[in-house]
Amino acid sequence: xxxxxxxxxxxxxxxxEPGVRRLGPPGISFEWLDLALDVAEPGLAVIxxxxxxxxIPREVMEVLSESSGESVRYRHSGTSILRLELPPTxxxxxxxxxxxxxxxxxxGERIFTIGWHRLHVIDEACLSIAQNRDEHVTPLGVLSEIxxxxxxxxxxxxxxxxxxxxxxEAELEEKGRVKEASIGExxxxxxxxxxxxxxxxxxxxxxxxxxxxxxxxxxxTSLKGLLGRANGLEQRVHSQLDRVRVLAxxxxxxxxxxxxxxxxxxxxxxxxxxxxxxxxxxLGINVEGIPDADDPNAFLxxxxxxxxxxxxxxxxxxxAMKLRGRSGR
Length: 329
Hints:
single chain, rod-shaped, 329 residues, alpha+beta, 7 helices
């Protein structure tokens, strides 16, 4: 079990049990429990104890224990569950990272958050709440800050994809080719984020319905700003996917040009050797009547004629190409 290292001031939290904290940053006047899965004891018992402390029905355990692989929002018996989830992904050129999952359970003026302490999403949300200097933070305001910090963890992956695309484009310009595997890796990462962003936007937007009767103007502004950030991030992902498509098309076109050049060179060689092959094939037939078959100098004469034929064919091709180039102008 990992040891919990808190980054918050000591008067902002109270340790209830290993991995479970009661959070109280400035502006928080309601009950807020936070569970760090990588610090608390394994199993569902610790989640049940936290739900009991907040008087939240255990019926939500079924939702909390399942993993859908994307961000979702549930409502059950007056309880709202918002899960922001980014499936396991990898920044191009690095190892696969763990799934980024934050779950927030709210009921009235009580909130229960579940996540991985090593990601510091909840701690950073608390610091942001304190910096806003809002004396009356609502559970919706907490959800907004958590979503904001969650998106902050996605942005570096998109930024790294953009850097890798810059390098791939430079490599394509310099070397005329780029590793197909690297393009595919960037594309897979961007598609993973893209598939996760839409449920995140939907989940954040629909969460406003749970607090429709208690919304403050500041909460609405914060939530709209969060949706705006998610929309902007989605547009960045789409623009990077467009760059991937253009890069793949350019690499394919340059590969086809290279293949065409190779085929063009082969056609030149075939054109030069075509008459030589015909002559040698004709003289190589095993029948009587071939002129000068017994002449000791016939072989040298034939070789000389073949060399002159090859040279003449090559010169003829060069002249034809020059004439074709002039007519094309």
